[in-house]
Structures are given as structure tokens and as C-alpha cells.
Design a protein that fits this description.
Blueprint lengths: L33 H14 L4 H15 L7 E2 L1 H10 L7 H11 L7 E2 H13 L2 H12 L9 E3 H14 L10 H15 L6 E3 H10 L1 H7 L16 E10 L7 H5 L2 H11 L9 E6 L7 E10 L5 H4 L2 H8 L3 E9 L5
Antiparallel strand pairs: 1-2, 3-4, 5-7, 5-8, 6-7
Helix pairs in contact: 2-3, 4-6, 7-8, 8-9
């Protein structure tokens, strides 16, 4: 996975320098006994996309690289490029190298141990789209002074610009700087609700799921263009949970058969991303003192618009009827298509 040299505007502060301070011991001691080491490699094989034999070879290369500066347990940023080459990632952009190292440096002390290195490298080399999108969020959040829980607009522009010219492990070069600026501007205009200039993790993932150009680029799907990108959006499962008690116990089926719920379901069907394959079932409430519980489920191929429910006549009917409680639950499939 080659990568061309970046434009010459990378700040000199991202150039690597020798680290002379004493390095910490790794949380994964790679020089332990053979049995212990085998268990460590077995665990990493279970949690990464690398086979145990591959991990053994990578570990040997990692140790040989790390001992150059006296500690076999960790590497520093100036050794980082050689470590990436061992997993097939050849990167010459100092800005991207710095950001990647910051993501892997979980203890923020300028050092990376073998476990953290191979865990992140596994995502970069062969991670699922969901894993790559989560990794990209971490990548955006590593700027100097950045809030680790938010993505800044400027950082997103910078990272996309550098990835666009160098990182074949994320996506092929395909977007001009003008297209990147427009893309990021659109993402923030639509999803930065508080106009803070940053996106939270939830806002970022929503933005990605709604923008096929950004998803396809980060997924490494090859050349993309704003006019041609098409992909299936993540699945959102929506549950409407209902409880009928008191005078309404035994009346749930009739209540849910009313015109208000039918109208709400029809409104959902007008949204092209809602499959509206509505299923209503009773889940509990056979005992005399137990409320009757029902669930209504829908499938949306894209972010759920909760106002369809919250502003419906059906929701108002639930609120105004004594003995009826309604709760809205939504969650997104972790498997991006």
C-alpha cells in the first residue's frame, strides 16, 4: 500500500526527532516467557485481523526496531515509519504520520507498545467500514490542543486533504481541495447543531452516514465524486414500546389499531429511507397485575427522523390517555454496508 509524498506545506513541528528520555515498560511485555508470549499473541490474533504467525513475525520486527534506542517494549515517533512499513503501509507525509502516532499512543507519552500498534494497524489494513470510520474520528481528534471527544472543522479539512494525496489505505486520491472544503462545509452546516465549529462523536457518525461521498472515501472504495457516489446507508432499528395499565389494560390491541397510528406509519413510508416494515407484537402482560407491553418495530436505511413520531397525532394521543405510556428507542447497526 504505497503513498506518494505529501504537498510541502506540512508543518515542521511534525518532523520526527530522536527521543532520548527513558522509555516506559510496555503493558505487553514482549520479552516474557514463551508460554506467556504465546498467550499474548493468541489474544491479539483473536482481537485483530492478523494471524498468529504474522503477529510473531511482526513482533520480532518490532523488537528489533525498538531495541535500537534501548527499550524492546516500545517505539518512538522517529521509529514509527519503519514499523508501519512492516505491515505494508508506506507513508511519507509527516503530518499523517504524526496523527497516526498520536492515535496509537494511548498513554500520551510519546511511545507506542506492540499491542496498541498492531490493534490500530489491523484496522488500517483490513478493518471493516465501521472500524475505519471510528478510527477516522480518532484521527481527526488528535490535533494539538484538540478536545479528544470532538472533531474540529479545520482538523477535518486538514486530515482529508492529506489523506486525499497520500493515504491509499483509506481511499484513492479523488477530491480536489475545493471539493474537500465544500464537503466539510456541508457536513458542518447540517450537523453542527450548536454552531460550535466541532462535531461530537454522535454528530460525526450521523454526518458520515448521511454523506455517501465521505463514507466511500474513508472506506477506500476507489475514485468517488459528489455526483456519482452511491452506497447503502447504515440500518437504524426503531422500537416504539407501549405499556397499557389500569383501565387501558386489555385495550392495547384496539388502541394500536387506531387511525392515528396508521397515519403515522403512512407518514414514515413517505420517507424513502424508511422500509416501514412495521411489526407489532405483545411482549408481556399475562398476569392480572402486570401491564400489557407491546412493541412496534421499523427498519430505516439511514438516520431516523424522530419528529415523525414526536410530532404525530398518535404521540399526542398516547400522552393524553391515562394508563398509556410510550417510549421511543432507536439504535444503529454496527455493520455499515
Amino acid at each position: 500500500m504505497g503513498a506518494a509524498a505529501s504537498a510541502g506545506d506540512a508543518s515542521s513541528k511534525y518532523e520526527s526527532h530522536p527521543h532520548t528520555r527513558e522509555r516506559r515498560r510496555s503493558t505487553t511485555n514482549m520479552l516474557g516467557g514463551g508460554g506467556t508470549n504465546d498467550l499474548i499473541l493468541h489474544g491479539l490474533a483473536q482481537s485483530t485481523k492478523f494471524e498468529k504467525a504474522e503477529l510473531k513475525t511482526l513482533q520480532e520486527s518490532f523488537i528489533a526496531l525498538a531495541v535500537k534506542q534501548g527499550n524492546p517494549n516500545t517505539i518512538t515517533e522517529d521509529e514509527f515509519r519503519e514499523a508501519l512499513a512492516a505491515v505494508g503501509i508506506v507513508e511519507s507525509d509527516q503530518f499523517i504520520l504524526h496523527q497516526l502516532f498520536a492515535v496509537m499512543d494511548k498513554q500520551h507519552d510519546g511511545q507506542v507498545n506492540f499491542k496498541d500498534f498492531v490493534t490500530c494497524a489491523s484496522v488500517m489494513v483490513s478493518g471493516s467500514l465501521a472500524e475505519k470510520l471510528h478510527f477516522s474520528f480518532e484521527l481527526y481528534c488528535t490535533g494539538d490542543g484538540a478536545d479528544s471527544s470532538t472533531v474540529a472543522k479545520e482538523d477535518m479539512c486538514n486530515i482529508l486533504k492529506h489523506l486525499n494525496t497520500t493515504a491509499s489505505w483509506f481511499g484513492d486520491p479523488s477530491l480536489s481541495e475545493e471539493e474537500i472544503a465544500t464537503l466539510v462545509g456541508d457536513v458542518f452546516a447540517k450537523n453542527d447543531v450548536e454552531k460550535s465549529g466541532t462535531l461530537s462523536y454522535k454528530e460525526y457518525m450521523n454526518a458520515v452516514s448521511e454523506n455517501p461521498v465521505l463514507v466511500q472515501f474513508l472506506a477506500g472504495k476507489g475514485t468517488v465524486s459528489p455526483s456519482a457516489a452511491k452506497l447503502q446507508l447504515p440500518i437504524w432499528w426503531i422500537d416504539y414500546d407501549f405499556s397499557f395499565s389500569g383501565a387501558m389494560k386489555g385495550q392495547g390491541k384496539e388502541f394500536l389499531a387506531g387511525e392515528e397510528l396508521s397515519s403515522m406509519i403512512m407518514e414514515c413510508k413517505k420517507n424513502k429511507v424508511c422500509k416501514a416494515s412495521t411489526v407489532i407484537e405483545k411482549t408481556h402482560g399475562s398476569g392480572a397485575d402486570e401491564p400489557d407491553l407491546y412493541v412496534l418495530r421499523q427498519e430505516w436505511h439511514g438516520p431516523f427522523e424522530d419528529k415523525v413520531f414526536l410530532e404525530s397525532a398518535f404521540a399526542k394521543k398516547c400522552e393524553s390517555t391515562e394508563g398509556v405510556e410510550a417510549k421511543l428507542t432507536e439504535w444503529k447497526s454496527v455493520d455499515f454496508k
